[in-house]
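Can't attach files on this board, so I'm pasting raw text. These are the components:
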Amino acid sequence: ILNVEQSPQSLHVQEGDSTNFTCSFPSSNFYALHWYRWETAKSPEALFVMTLNGDEKKKGRISATLNTKEGYSYLYIKGSQPEDSATYLCALNSGGYQKVTFGTGTKLQVIP
Amino acid sequence: ETGVTQTPRHLVMGMTNKKSLKCEQHLGHNAMYWYKQSAKKPLELMFVYNFKEQTENNSVPSRFSPECPNSSHLFLHLHTLQPEDSALYLCASSLSTATGNGYTFGSGTRLTVV
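---
Top answer:
Structure tokens for the assembled complex are below.
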């Protein structure tokens, strides 16, 4: 069983602050790393699928980086807004659909 | 609305009941999945269907029985569940089961077994 760890488990930031959190994973058998945003009572929403070491992806104020050699990905949110409040999940694909392992998520609360 | 619709949103059932969860997508995706999320735990893969064929049963007890009549619909039939089966059940779909495809999730069914 692979261990995908996300830190911190939760955090509170003030509106306007920038923040980041981490997804750590075993670097062997890496195929892809997914990030999802999951707002309460809604569906998890795909943010990024990252496959290459050194990948950087951006969607509005949210960006992500990937280091497959050391086994981590960072998610950054610039100028946090209350609507960014959600749980952010990462998922490691280590080889096909049956080898997708989710982390427990980072719960972000942005305080107006 | 993501394009993956799950019904019902909430379900309370007794241990002797039989119920079914439904998932529907019209995104043209060929792979569909059932995931379970229990409190404080990561999402756990239960079943995978690819082109209507079940390709994965992740050691799920037989009281959970999936059905995929076509590429757009997925069911999870429930019978004689236990209280510890209470959880959020999420359906997801993807273009295929290939590595680079992200999932589109439904909003889930919150199941309570009493």
